[in-house]
Amino acid sequence: MSHDLRHDPNPSIHSDSSPFPNPIGHNLASRLREGTRQSHTSAENTAYMKCFLKGVVVPVAFQKLLANLYWIYDAMEAEFDRLQDHPILRQIHFPELRRSENLAQDLAFFYGEDWQDCITPNGAGLTYVMRIHLMARDRPERLVAHAYVRYLGDLSGGQGLRKIVRSALNLPADRGTGLYEFSALPTPEAKRDFKMHYRDVLNALPLSETEVLGIIEEANLAFQLNCNLVHSLEPHIQAAIDPQQFAQITNDSHQGSTELVEVGR
Hints:
This protein is mainly α. The chain has one domain (28-253): Heme Oxygenase, Chain A (Up-down Bundle), CATH 1.20.910. Helices cover 60% and strands 0% of the residues. The chain has helices spanning 28-35, 37-44, 47-53, 59-82, 100-111, 123-138, 143-155, 157-169, 188-204, 209-240, 243-250. The model is unreliable at 1-23 and 257-265 (pLDDT under 50).
């Protein structure tokens, strides 16, 4: 399904790569992991995620998160499809990771068959969507950062979130958590092997040092955009649970899992 949220229907597909890219030795995977460590920890310490990790999953907040993520993934995947011949993006384009179709199934479960008439991105979600389209137009190689943050998050920490939401909302089998389901990667071993392959692909991308630094910068922004989105949904949580419980959960900070997981970011 197409959505008219772009800045420009025909942005350029050309990267501003330097004439001397350095595809060997930039070690993008490790530099992304290290360069986003603080942002990853900040994302895990939002009130929304603290509540989620404690098993406090408010249905309306979760449904609105899925609705906004649908627009975000739809934008990113539409741009990857459009730029499938781009010399950098074509190497990191894995259709088996697509989330928009799975999210459509989740939204049909929660909102009904007319779900498309029930959802719209909020301000934070729309800002996220427009950033994706802007980078696709002006700095397409930076879409690598958005794919990295979103897809590897779903393949890694998202698998734990899947278990939490299924238990908290007592969902029927195979319904409501399609965001975290990867039919092409059905086992933990398959996911692990794919993430290793993804890391190798990142490290082999023909990028200049300037582009590498730009991708790391964009990945940190992607984390911030995601934080802004979940912050925008916190009032739904506050309205649904006891204020003392909310304060107790959100006042407790913890170290991010980036330091604990060797493969995935």
